[in-house]
Amino acid sequence: MKDVDRIAPPGSEERKLLESIPPERFPKHVAIIMDGNGRWAKKRGLPRVEGHRAGIEAVRSTVEAAARLEIPVLTLYAFSTENWRRPRWEVLTLMALLKEYLNKELHTLVENNIRFRPIGRIHELEPEIQQGLAHAVEATAANTGLFFQIALNYSGRAELTDTVREAVRLAREGKLREDDVDEAWVAAHLATAGTPDPDLLIRTSGEMRISNFLLWQIAYTELVITPVLWPDFRARDLIAAVADYARRERRFGGVPEAEETEET
Ligand code: IPE
Ligand code: IPE
Ligand code: MG
Questions:
Q1: Is 83 a catalytic site residue?
Q2: What are the positions of the active site (predicted)?
Q3: What digits encode the pLDDT tens for the residues 70-85?
Q4: Hey, CA dihedral for 17, 18, 19, 22, is it positive or negative?
Q5: I want to staple 176 with a disulfide (CB 3.0 to 4.6 A). Which of 72, 170, 213, 241 is the partner?
Q6: Are 50 and 41 in contact (CB under 8 A)?
Q7: Contact 80 CB / ligand 2 (< 6 Å)
Q8: Which residues of 220-259 are buried (b: 16+ CB within 10 A; e: fewer)?
Q9: Under a CB-based contact definition with an 8 Å cutoff, are residues 55 and 76 in contact?
Q10: Is the pTM for the entire model greater than 0.70?
């Protein structure tokens, strides 16, 4: 049985919701567009960067909740290739918070058997961050619990572009033929290689858009948009999204399961 007492105490609403979800209906990969930090701060008359600072606590508790719920893969969208367009001070603060998170939280990841991997154009980040990320990957490489991916300087289009470039390079070197390229080849050469496509994509703060996240991988992902602003997101909100997902009927272009055997 999952160790959920801390995130959903016995008798609580979250616990009841959790107990109503059949085990086989849990998502294997949850991806989250963490949005609404700026609005959270604005509501309180604070600068936007205070929203980002508060968002760290939401990251911490969501990672813990995903681990306790035994969700195999969690991917968080932290910084897009378009986010460089933000004011310089905001970008610097986001990078500083990332460094702080890596310094402070690495031991929690290690202790909780969490494996860590950044995805995105990591080589374009500042050297100190690259080192911090590489260290976190190394320190958690042997862990077997939650696989926690963080998307940094990431966008779906950049990822697909990099994959196409790699294909061209391999072809030029005579290591790849046209017939070798199928959907499985593409999936295996994306940043997310080795993980199943997300079953559930959550976006906080009510925005109904994808903003260049995991474009290839979300072809058949179920979407849950919550009005909760990212800094307020906690285990109860993750559980609510999982419960919503568990009630969905997925078709993948086919017919409802119950009608599969029907003769016409
Ligand atoms: C999400 O919050 C954090 C990042 C994109 C880095 P925002 O900063 O986008 O918050 P809003 O959307 O302005 O409220
Ligand atoms: C998406 O949020 C990127 C991240 C959460 C890192 P944005 O706030 O940047 O997206 P838009 O600009 O509202 O589409
Ligand atoms: Mg936003």
A1: yes
A2: 35, 83
A3: 999 999 999 999 999 9
A4: positive
A5: 170
A6: yes
A7: yes
A8: ebbbbbbebbbbbbbbbbbbbbbbbbbeeeeeeeeeeeee
A9: no
A10: yes
Residue type present at position 251: R
pLDDT digit string (tens) for 144-175?
999 999 999 999 999 999 999 999 999 999 99
In single-letter form, the type of residue at position 17 comes to L
CA pair distance 106, 187, nearest whole angstrom? 29
**Can you tell me the distance from the alpha carbon of 29 to that of 78, in angstroms, rounded to the nearest whole number?**
17
Which numbered atom of ligand 1 lies nearest the CA of 40? 14
Per-residue tokens: 78: 């932290």
42-56 confidence digits (pLDDT tens) = 999 999 999 999 999
Confidence of residue 251 (pLDDT cuts 50, 70, 90): very high
The CB-side HSE value for 201 (13 A sphere, CA atoms) comes to: 24
Per-residue pLDDT tens over the stretch 23-35: 999 999 999 999 9
> Which helix (H) or strand (E) element contains residue 262?
none
For residue 205, give both structure tokens.
């703060």
Domain annotation for the chain: domains and CATH numbers: 26-155+196-247 (3.40.1180.10)
Annotated binding site for substrate: 36-40, 48, 52, 80-82, 84, 86, 203, 209-211
The answer, yes or no, to whether any atom of ligand 1 lies below 6 A from the CB of 50, is: no
Q: Are 29 and 75 in contact (CB under 8 A)?
A: yes
* The token pair that represents 232 in the structure block: 């307020």
